[in-house]
Specification:
Blueprint: H1 2-24, H2 44-51, H3 57-67, E1 70-75, E2 78-83, H4 86-94, E3 100-101, H5 106-112, H6 122-134, H7 138-158, E4 162-165, H8 166-183, H9 189-205, H10 213-239, H11 241-244, H12 249-255, H13 262-292, H14 295-310, H15 320-324, H16 327-340, E5 345-350, E6 354-356, E7 359-361, E8 366-370, H17 371-375, H18 417-434, E9 435-439, E10 445-446, E11 452-453, E12 458-463, H19 466-469
Parallel strand pairs: 2-8
Antiparallel strand pairs: 1-2, 3-5, 4-12, 5-8, 6-7, 9-12, 10-11
Helix pairs in contact: 7-8, 7-18, 8-13, 9-10, 10-13, 13-16, 13-18, 14-16
Bound molecules: protoporphyrin IX containing FE and 2-acetamido-2-deoxy-beta-D-glucopyranose (NAG) (3 copies).
Length: 470
């Protein structure tokens, strides 16, 4: 009883403070129009229920219709300005570190580690971001990573038989490739046991941290992952010059002029694993799902890849020039990124009062730049809510750069943008040339807490006989 009374009292009190603060503090400012919803919880429940459904669009659509492309809501405990306007989104991305910055809750930053790229700011962020960029740039992919990518994807595909969960297989591939890229480790027992811990760590990002066993387990798993990675780092440091000959991220970090500590390197690696893992594996799964649902597009993709295989031996790896010749596949990839919106947008915090579009975003407020709303807007893409890879065929140059932003932009532009594209292309190549498949059961897409398919996309596969097909 006592706790209930206490709860009610504190609830009323906070509700009162809340209403008061809404009235008084911003009276002078012209904040973007909108509805703050209920006290404390605001519109959080509407947001979550929309994004847990197959069709989350109404949440944004209704508010855009009532208030315009920039509006205010109150979600996840704070007033938040939403933008579905490409110009505003670009302004937010470009002014990272000057007018806006990232601000992760401590539950997330504890999982990431204090030296994570995602948490870095200022000059250090700039330097580490460009180091990361240089380690996923096209010349590294072309000269070093592509051949491993080819081998790892082929190796994984050879183990498919009967019924597989496509998302699980994509995750194995992505993890193995990242381990290769970071520290030249090949898949084996060690990587599989590391991956098991790593999965527990990832689960921690998507749970409410208070009183949660999942979260505590994730923190423990982080320690284990960090220990395992730390061991490799120490061994390579001992090897000295011998290890430097390896063309991987670890060699670059160990060889850097102003030396990084083991802890810094480990946190840095965890950040790369976290940022590249879910995103790339989900986009691989969704590309296949979208193609399955669009037989015409699938037939055209098959034709493109059969032509490539026709000109080379069955066991020869894909080369850079062949990747570059996959024109229709690139259209499919852009269209998949546009429709899927794995990262639906980004949260930032206003570092000062910011004037934009005739409104003021008060200092300390959260903003959400929605990429999804722009990508699915008929004003920017004709018939925006249907999958149509052909729309990209004649579009070179017609789509302004701030309209299509699946990889973000500005100082935090995704360093993995090219890597993800190449990985996806090679994956599609081997899937369409090597197997035939049908969905094993109906699966659906949901968007909260992240975009994914509910059942990990189970499919029934059998080897494809290209000679007979044609
Ligand atoms: C289809 C796959 C991917 C998508 C859609 C994607 C999307 C994004 C987006 C939108 C951001 C910006 C986040 C922000 O501004 O707060 C980002 C950042 C980042 N991504 Fe990716 N990403 C993908 C794959 C990868 C891969 C494969 C890697 C690994 C190399 C990677 C590493 C990173 C890192 C380290 C950051 C943080 C950059 C920073 O804060 O400076 N991503 N990604
Ligand atoms: C890619 O990064 C390497 C260093 O890792 C650098 O030598 C090279 O010039 C970069 N290439 C491009 C095209 O940026
Ligand atoms: C795909 O989108 C990128 C921008 O992210 C663009 O540079 C590229 O030209 C597009 N590809 C095709 C085939 O339209
Ligand atoms: C693209 O342009 C070519 C000629 O430039 C034309 O034949 C083709 O029909 C166009 N495709 C689309 C989808 O508009």
């Amino acid at each position: 009883m006592e706790t209930l009374a206490y709860f009610l009292l504190s609830f009323c009190l906070s509700a009162f403070i809340y209403v008061f603060y809404r009235r008084s503090r911003y009276r002078g400012l012209r904040i973007p129009p909108g509805s703050l919803g209920l006290p404390l919880i605001g519109e959080t429940l509407q947001l979550i229920s929309a994004y847990k459904s197959e069709n989350p669009e109404p949440f944004m659509d209704e508010r855009i219709k009532r208030f315009g492309l920039v509006f205010t809501s109150h979600v996840l405990g704070e007033p938040t300005v939403f933008s579905a306007d490409p110009e505003t989104n670009r302004f937010i991305l470009q002014n990272e570190g000057r007018l806006f910055d990232c601000d992760y809750p401590s539950s997330i930053s504890n999982l990431l580690g204090k030296h994570s790229l995602l948490l870095m700011k200022g000059a250090l962020h700039k330097r580490m971001h460009s180091l990361t960029m240089s380690f996923a740039n096209y010349s590294i992919i072309k000269d070093h990573l592509l051949v491993h990518m080819d081998r790892l994807i082929r190796f994984n595909l050879n183990s498919w038989s009967d019924r597989v969960f496509l998302l699980d297989e994509a995750k194995k591939i992505t993890f193995d490739l990242t381990m290769k890229q970071l520290m030249s480790v090949d898949p084996g027992e060690w990587t599989e046991s590391l991956r098991k811990e790593y999965i527990l760590l990832i689960d921690g990002f998507f749970t409410v941290p208070f009183f949660s066993t999942t979260y505590r387990r994730a923190i423990k798993a982080r320690t284990k992952v960090a220990e395992a990675l730390g061991l490799v780092v120490r061994e390579r440091r001992k090897e000295g010059e011998v290890g430097m000959g390896k063309k991987d991220m670890l060699a670059a970090l160990l060889g850097a002029e102003d030396g990084f500590s083991d802890d810094q390197i480990v946190d840095f690696f965890v950040a790369l694993l976290v940022a590249g893992y879910e995103t790339t594996s989900i986009i691989m799964t969704l590309a296949v799902k979208f193609l399955t649902e669009n037989p015409l597009a699938l037939a055209q993709v098959k034709e493109e890849h059969d032509q490539i295989r026709l000109k080379k031996g069955e066991s020869e790896a894909i080369e850079w020039s062949e990747y570059k010749s996959m024109h229709f596949t690139q259209c499919v990839i852009n269209e998949t990124l546009r429709m899927a919106n794995i990262i639906g947008g980004i949260f930032r915090r206003a570092m000062t009062d910011i004037n934009i579009k005739g409104y003021t975003i008060p200092k300390g407020w959260k903003v959400f730049a929605s990429f999804r709303a722009v990508h699915l807007d008929n004003d920017h893409f004709k018939d925006a809510r249907t999958f149509n890879p052909w729309r990209w065929q004649n579009s070179s140059g017609t789509c302004p750069p701030n309209v299509f932003t699946p990889f973000g932009g500005g100082p935090r532009l995704c360093p993995g943008y090219e890597l993800a594209r190449v990985e996806l292309s090679v994956f599609i190549h081997y899937v369409v040339t090597h197997v035939s498949w049908v969905p094993a059961e109906k699966d659906k897409l949901i968007y909260f807490p992240t975009t994914r398919t509910l059942k990990r996309y189970p499919i029934i596969v059998c080897p494809r006989n290209r000679a007979q097909d044609n």
